[in-house]
């Protein structure tokens, strides 16, 4: 395991109540201001800390909770509330790919993952593939400064670098939301398809 990867043996940390102060799922959901989303892809979903509350806002939708760690997916399967069975779907992914169909997602969401990525550009290419035209990507990761907890500062990624990576991947309307005490929170959009005017007067 890479030194930068979260250790699944420390899984309990992902459900610690302190996370609600630092990474409040309800505040993030409200800030994203999604309009009737039907499919969300949570990359690096862990124990479903975000997938589960997001799903509760989507009674007609599905959240695909994707992770590379079998331990995370097994925990989620065993602890998923009964009423969310079939609405939160654990998915085993690879480092650079997610085995889901193209242009299916209204939102692709990543929390505390960006500083762990071996190839951020590849994941953003995959994010582009997964998103519907007009869909959103949201990246939440530790600020590149000292915070009350989190990974070593030297492995964190600056807001400006994440913005540039999003732009390089083709995303537009890149925005920063300053609603979290310890985290960068960036949102961007895959441009909508342009009307096909070829052959028309």
Structure summary:
The protein is built from 6 helices and 7 strands.
**Do you know the CATH topology?**
Rossmann fold
Query: How many strands?
Result: 7
Helix content: 10-25%
Q: Give me the Rg, rounded.
A: 17 Å
% residues in beta strands: 15-25%
CATH superfamily: Vaccinia Virus protein VP39
Main-sheet strand order equals 3-2-1-4-5-7-6
Description:
The chain has six helices and seven strands; from the N terminus they run ααβαβαββαβαββ. Helix content is 25%, strand content 23%. By secondary structure, the chain is α/β, with parallel strands linked by helices. β1, α3 and β2 form a beta-alpha-beta unit. The chain has a single domain, classed as Vaccinia Virus protein VP39 (Rossmann fold), CATH 3.40.50.
Sum up the structure in keywords:
seven-stranded mixed sheet, Rossmann fold, alpha/beta, globular, 201 residues
Topology:
Blueprint: H1 18-22, H2 25-32, E1 39-43, H3 51-56, E2 62-67, H4 70-79, E3 88-92, E4 105-111, H5 120-130, E5 131-142, H6 159-168, E6 172-176, E7 183-189
Parallel strand pairs: 1-2, 1-4, 2-3, 4-5
Antiparallel strand pairs: 5-7, 6-7
């Amino acid at each position: 395991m890479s030194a930068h990867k979260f250790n699944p043996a420390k899984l309990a940390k992902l459900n610690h109540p302190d996370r609600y102060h630092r990474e409040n799922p309800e505040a993030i959901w409200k800030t994203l201001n999604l309009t009737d989303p039907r499919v969300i892809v949570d990359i690096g979903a862990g124990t479903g800390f975000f997938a589960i509350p997001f799903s509760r806002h989507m009674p007609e939708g599905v959240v695909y909770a994707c992770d590379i760690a079998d331990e995370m997916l097994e925990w989620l399967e065993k602890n998923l509330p009964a009423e969310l069975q079939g609405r939160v779907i654990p998915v085993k992914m690879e480092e650079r790919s997610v085995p889901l169909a193209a242009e299916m997602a209204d939102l692709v969401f990543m929390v505390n993952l960006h500083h762990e990525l071996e190839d951020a550009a590849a994941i953003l290419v995959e994010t582009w593939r997964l998103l519907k035209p007009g869909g959103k990507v949201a990246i939440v990761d530790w600020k590149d400064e000292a915070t009350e907890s989190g990974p070593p500062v030297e492995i964190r990624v600056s807001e400006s670098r994440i913005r540039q990576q999003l732009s390089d991947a083709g995303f537009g309307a890149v925005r920063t939301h300053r609603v979290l005490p310890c985290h960068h929170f960036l949102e961007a959009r895959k441009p909508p398809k342009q009307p096909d005017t070829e052959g028309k007067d």
